[in-house]
Amino acid sequence: MAVQHGQTNLYIDDLPWLEREELCRILNQNNEWEELAGKWMKFDVSTVQCLRKNENPTDKLLKMWTTFNHTVQELFLLLYKMQHHQAMLLLKNFVNPKYSKLITNRKRPSAQLLNCHVADEHSKDLKIGTNNFNHIQPASSDVQKLCIYQTMYERVAKMLDKFPLPNDLDPSNSDNMLVPTGVNQNLAPVPRPVVDGSKNNNQLKISLIDTDLPQPSYEELAKATHNWSKHNILGRGGFGTVFKGIWKGTPVAIKKIEQRGSDSKESYLIQVEQSLRELKILYARRHDNILPLYGHSIGGEAPCLVYQLMPNGSLEDKLSLRQGSQPLNWLQRHNIATGTAGGLQYLHTIGHKPLIHGDIKSANILLDKNFEPKIGDFGLARDGPEQDYMKVSRVQGTRPYLPDEFLRDRNLSTKVDTYSYGIVLLELATGLGAYSNARPEHKFLKAYVDSFEEKDIRLLKDSTAGTEKDKVFDNLIVLGKWCANTLPKDRPQMVDVHRKLERL
């Protein structure tokens, strides 16, 4: 992609090679990338330690960050928070010209400008090390009302004489994103967490959503997971940690929403609010191919959601053959494609307005003991328009699975889910990831598949699936390309996709 100086709203991987190389050189000096990675991008300490092993850690850091919809302008603002003017100057021509005023401010802003609170003896320093990760600030003896922090962009806007900032700066706040940001405003509101000043330790008091789901106590769930044993951990995400447990004699997965040391109370509340939204959606939209929710626990030390355990993990794990898992055969892949399409068409048609998932990807398609797919992670779901599309204020989701009209124009419709589903079908057919730096010319799977002529397309077939019923490969490729058409009008409705798969 050719990039002209002065062009703004570029994604990280659109940054010209020379500028990127110089940025890496600058941040590699004195390991300044560590502060960017740990404090501002919010990678955990183990990731930072792995990055240290790379010859060019900044370049590796940018490659990891680039898959999550982040722009050069976002990077510029993080560098501003670091007060790294040299690196900001390098990116000056690729951000909105109004932001150049930030470079002229050579003094580090006061604590009140960058944070709502004044640093005290418990504040962390800027050095990135194990002592600064997973750091829990001791509770103040004086219980204070929770301050809902302004976003970074609003704070910067004040410095720019209240210049109206573009709305498309917000990175995604999906569980799979690295930088938690603002709450999605396009969903019907759910009860917002508040601080109950009558309790110690600033414990969160959350209004419960009215459901008939069981509400086990926090202590009951702690017992189910052997007191949150590290041996019971199934995975970690931006929301917290998922534990395997046995509750009421039933294997379950328990999502524990945690506030981590590098998180502000604002980002923690966002994660809680997303989980409450997910609870509301999963309770109201029950389907064989939607992850079953067994219960929720609100009011203990941490909010928790209890799900059916998916013993075969995610589709992404299976296609990547992680932990020595056996490869999926072609019949299993067909059934996974059909079941996922069934869940999506249900979401799109069951209500007066379609419910758009917003983050369909192989990592969010979970497999039960019979390899039946269940769609999970509804933290970004929102009501869509009855017809055509609607403009949204921010782009959220995982970039390799998002279509151009959403990334560039913020046009949201059910066809965004259709496109994402199409990329999943291409993953099922090829066994390849939606994004890979190992493909120098076509990092995104859709572009890579499109680069093959029709006569050579079977070279992409995932050989690990075997040869029995390998006609499924052709079906997945054809449907995947249909669903992932560049123009939304050329993509099918998920009802038609599901009907087509059931007939194959």
Automatic annotation (TrEMBL):
- Listed Gene3D superfamilies: Death Domain, Fas, Phosphorylase Kinase, domain 1, Transferase(Phosphotransferase) domain 1
For the keyword Nucleotide-binding, the answer is yes
What is the uppermost EC class here?
transferase
Residues annotated for ATP binding in this entry: 256
Q: Give the EC number(s) listed in the UniProt record.
A: 2.7.11.1
Record keyword Transferase present: yes
Please provide an example of a Pfam family that matches this protein in its UniProt record. Pkinase
Keywords, ordered alphabetically: ATP-binding, Kinase, Nucleotide-binding, Serine/threonine-protein kinase, Transferase
A single Gene Ontology MF term assigned here is: ATP binding
SUPFAM superfamilies registered for this protein in UniProt: DEATH domain, Protein kinase-like (PK-like)
Instruction: Enumerate the transmembrane spans.
Output: none
| Chain ranges of the Protein kinase domain | 228-501
Among InterPro entries, the record links this protein to: DEATH-like_dom_sf (IPR011029), Death_dom (IPR000488), Kinase-like_dom_sf (IPR011009), LRR_Rcpt-Like_S/T_Kinase (IPR051824), Prot_kinase_dom (IPR000719), Protein_kinase_ATP_BS (IPR017441), Ser/Thr_kinase_AS (IPR008271)
Chemical reaction(s) catalysed: L-threonyl-[protein] + ATP = O-phospho-L-threonyl-[protein] + ADP + H(+); L-seryl-[protein] + ATP = O-phospho-L-seryl-[protein] + ADP + H(+)
Instruction: Give the UniProt record's GO annotations in the biological process aspect.
Output: innate immune response; signal transduction
Q: Which protein family is named in the record?
A: Belongs to the protein kinase superfamily. TKL Ser/Thr protein kinase family. Pelle subfamily.
Q: Which named protein is this? A: non-specific serine/threonine protein kinase
Native source organism of the sequence: Neodiprion lecontei
* Gene symbol of the encoding locus: LOC107218393
